[in-house]
Amino acid sequence: MKKRILIFAFILILPIMSYASILKITVKAPIHPITSEYIRDTIDRAEKENASLLIIALNTPGGLDTSMREIIERILSSKTPVLVYVSPSGGRAASAGFFIGIACDIFVMAPGTNTGAAHPVGVSITGQSMDKTMEEKVTHDAASYIKTLAEKRGRNTKLAEDAVRKSLSYTEKEAFEGKLIDLIAASEREIIEHFDGKRIKRFDGEEYLLELKGEEIIDIPMSARQKFLITISNPNLAYLLLMLGLLGLYFEFSNPGAILPGVLGGIFLLLAIFSFQILPINYVGLILILLAIGLFILEIKVQSYGILSIGGIIAMIIGSIMLIPAPIPELRPSLKFIIPVVIGLSSIFIFLIVIAVRAQMRRVHTGKEGLVGEIGVVRSDLKPEGKVFVHGELWNAEASEEIPKGTKVKVLEVMNNLVLKVTKS
After folding, report:
1. Per-residue pLDDT tens over the stretch 87-111
2. Catalytic site residues?
């Protein structure tokens, strides 16, 4: 009976034992809602599978404060130890990445990497520049936050605070000698060999024994959904989708019934709007871009001799620059990308406007209006009424003077009774 109980217990424990492993994810992107979701989901999985350790291979320029705090909050509550490994060589964990590294149970850097430069950027999420008082408040808040994390993790609070207040950045050697990180390692295997059998102190004060020898490192890729979202969250792509969406809708409204431009424009615009839910958006910049489109359309109706078009180009450039006021350049559209796109789209709009204006100014060739200005020949003397041959047809006509048969005349007007008013040409 006891043997059966032991066998049954072993069968129950076996799946749990098989789960024990080391999970690894690679984050090579700015810190924003998608990378935050990726990290938090993996921590959930690590806990569910009773993983021995979660390694986050991090290479980031920083990112959004809200996403950074979401990640740190989940790391601090994680039942599975979390290790940040700044890699590969040449990589960095700057700004928000520095905060995340300091918050982790273990902080490791590869040779040739750097970390720090965590001073808050003086721009709010709405794109408005902070005044001096507000910037000081944000800096004090960030400094207090990093000091708390560093103190609880047993790291150098002075160097951590200097990275925030003075925007200092540290090489892997400076960080190790200053006790900001726990190890310099060239590979994950070197990390495992170093920490196997060692005890670490968790954020809640409890000690945890790392048993890593022989554990398999399992790479956890992003889901297809996350890969798609991180692709369209590229600020240059999001900006291009917005411009193409507006252009498609402009084509559709200018040529009702074309269908394809409207469908594609709608799809691009919806994808851009979805991207803007991930990226911080300044709505004044968006309004300026919409104003630019309005000025281009208005140019068709009002002969401003190009003034409205120039205003539209200026509004589009300023709006594009203001559109995504992210704290780091990697989350903003590049000016080198904005200028060609604005010039290209403005050229398309102006080309369409010129075509529309020429069409409006072109002489009508059909109907009553098409006869005005035509040259004809008098077939019977106009005294002042008679017959004229115009446009391959014989018409009743009248003139303000007598005009003999055979004289060439020019049509001035088609009167309501379909009588042509003519004069000598």
Report:
1. 999 999 999 999 999 999 999 999 9
2. 95, 137
